[in-house]
């Protein structure tokens, strides 16, 4: 009760009504925010993380093992970017995306989770838009600009994922171009390489059979085609997956802040539930959140997914650069790529310390390190491994 001696009886009543309205308003807003978060968590997990990196890489990896000899230069290039992906996908099928598995139990769409993932694949996924520049343009946050090194201009300059990602995209593209030009000095060599053609044909027509008739598939006839296809694959396996995966616990592990699931809808004013909501909005909110068991399972899984193993191999590192022994030019080019990745890491550090970049630096703002290439083991919210390995 506000003091009528200070406010006067009428003003006091008006203010109380206002505060009560604000409190309820805030709570409705928080409830709405929680629902937005739970929907976003579903899109993140089912479409962007599982579908666009783990699942869509798998056909290319399977076909590489079936069609390319271990001595083939493209197999050697892709090898570190295929590490552990088939293993982690097999584990995901057993316990995460399986019927009644963790994903169905902990995300709002429940038993329709995989159906939604499949629908997004059928209606939205396009390999030719999966590279970073094409994806940013498709999402309406960049426009083509031939004067820029990566051929586009960001409409939001202080967008950490995009601006750091473009540094990595450029480094990958330069490395892949040097590599491809070394082994395929002209496009006829690309056309006449049977193993290479069979690899791509099987990836598209067997692995991605449901979409194989789509006209947007890039052809593989020139060295430029090969550079573009390989850069996209390595981008998806490394930086794109890292940006989606390793922040899951640090950014989303606290369930009340970002619930993956809401068990009660926002009540309509004519609904009986609305009275319950008005009587105690906080209780209503808490009862809408995942159950204790659901929340615990979800937290355990995203904690595991966000963890780097001690034997992780990061972008710019290779266990065996000697795989190219006898080809000093390529070994040197690889070390040049490694040096560029280290330079990018320093640039990201500088950006995170720049107070003009308010989306990554300032009071209460987390630095954006998801695309900082190196990391120690554990949950570090940074580090770009070579492959989709968790
Ligand atoms: Fe992952």
From TrEMBL:
Recorded GO MF terms: metal ion binding; oxidoreductase activity, acting on single donors with incorporation of molecular oxygen, incorporation of two atoms of oxygen
One Gene Ontology term from the biological process aspect of the record: fatty acid biosynthetic process
Entries under InterPro entries matching the protein: LipOase, LipOase_C, LipOase_C_sf, LipOase_CS, LipOase_Fe_BS
Extent of the signal sequence: none
Cofactor: Fe cation
Domain Lipoxygenase per the UniProt entry, residue ranges: 1-390
Protein name: Lipoxygenase domain-containing protein
